[in-house]
Sequence to fold (312 residues):
Amino acid sequence: MRYGFLSGALWGLDTVVLGIALLMAPFLGAGQASLSSAVLHDVACALILLVYMGVRGRLRHTLTAATTRSGKAVMGAALLGGPLGMSGYLIAIDNIGPAYTAIISTFYPAVGTALAALLLKERMRLRQVLALLAALGAVVLVGWSSSGAQVPGSAPLGIAGALTCVVGWGSEAVILAWGMRDDAVDNETALQLRETTSALVYLVVLAPLGGALGFTLETVTTPAAGVIALAGLAGTVSYLFYYKAINTIGASRGMALNISYSAWAVIFAFLLQHAVPSPLQVVCCVAILICTVLAATPQWQDLRPSRVRQTL
Fold:
């Protein structure tokens, strides 16, 4: 369970650091900032994993895994979670703003849990489902408390983009869980396949189609790109923990823990940007952290202090 919790914490850090980069030149005010930063982020993750797996002498293993049925399934999941899901996320941000996008997109674990039950026969107790719903409700309140009354673009298009993100991210986790049942595709190999596939699709397809390739290349030597690389490092480690969690405790419980990132983002925004949260946000963050742990724990008596110390 700790892997999923750490994945949420580091993804919250990734989110805040990426937000800092977008406030720097040349991204600030640029229409291509969202797509360009997504390209740089996933390319940074792919390069970090290339070095990581190379140092460990596992690149050949990844190439072998890519030829298997499970490896191809993981690469297909990369398209759902990366280019498809993230593109929908960016479209939503551009049209309905980040707060409303966060409210809708955070429901991807609900879709993933339903798909995991249907396809992987994973089951969550009723009380776990209720805890997940409570966590999602708290996330909605956090997003709502930071949202404005107006949306920057087309609301229908933004909602469609956010729903695409929900389906993409939710189905990605389920396909990954299925693919990692194969001994040839462990969690680290699956992650390298995922990030490499996503980065290549961004560079070869999405960035050129979105007219952001030239702008992206121009930003590579700027300090902001270095900050995005730092976000990519946090994101890479977050993904390593997330995939480990999915492989260890299943897709539904792994996703339940991962959405704690919304609470961690508030915490890191306070630490790094001195953004003081409102009392409502503080209460919601505590609720999110507690409820995500409850949603990922089949036997709640295992959370007694003595039992927790034994598992750490």
Summary: The two ends are 10 Å apart (CA to CA). The first helix runs from residue 2 to 22.
